[in-house]
Amino acid sequence: MENPTKLYLVRHGEVEERYLQIYGGRIDMNLSERGREQAMALGPFFARQGLDAIYCSTMKRARQTLEPIAEHASSSPVFIEDLREIDFGAWTGLSWQEVAKKHESEVADWLHLLDSGEVDGAESTADLRTRVEPCLNRILESHPGQSVAIICHGAVIRQLLSGLLSLPIRELGGIDISYAGVSLIEHDGKRNVARYINNTPWRLES
Predict the structure, then answer these.
(1) Residue 206 has pLDDT above 50, yes or no
(2) 174, 195, 169, 206: which is closest to 14 by C-alpha?
């Protein structure tokens, strides 16, 4: 690919311990101490890559992950409300195991259940796509041939990957998107290529 747009999809760092393996969704939680250390390791990583722009969810855990990265971009970060995490409705605050037991399913089936509309009060995957796709299109149109980081959340990253790679989102629940994990997709206007999925720079920098 010649002079592609590089999209770095970045999940926020680890969250407060009480929210680990919990469907947090719209709960506006902070990073844990480990999460802040993971975010700090993203600073040197992006210093080497170089960034022309950063887009970020408005939620605290994403904004806190942004802080060590922001100085390595040539423009100020842009905060977008529509990059916030999916609303888990009745699942909010429940553990992965509680939900799996309730639905007699595997933990990795959570996107199948959301996609099938089986979660009371939850945002559907169709609604997630409706709000996230315009963000992605805006970013791609604004930054041809540039390097851009999008700092957001697990479900949002899976939706971005679904759109970019033409994969059904319900099949992406079993793909690990780690805390402070980075996925790189290159876009040349005609096709998208995944250079890597779920790289974790903090494992190398720590």
Answers:
(1) no
(2) 206
Which listed residue (12, 112, 143, 153) is catalytic? 12
Residue 205, pLDDT score: 53
The token duo for 198 is 């779920």
* Any domain includes 60: yes
The catalytically annotated residue of 14, 72, 85, 112 is 85
The question of whether 85 is a catalytic residue gets the answer: yes
3-state secondary structure 76-88: CCEEEHHHCCCCC
Q: Does residue 149 fall inside a structural domain?
A: no
For 45, the domain range is 5-144+154-205
pLDDT digits (tens, 9 = 90+) for 30-85: 999 999 999 999 999 999 999 999 999 999 999 999 999 999 899 999 999 999 99
Residue 166 DSSP label: T
Q: Is 12 a catalytic residue?
A: yes
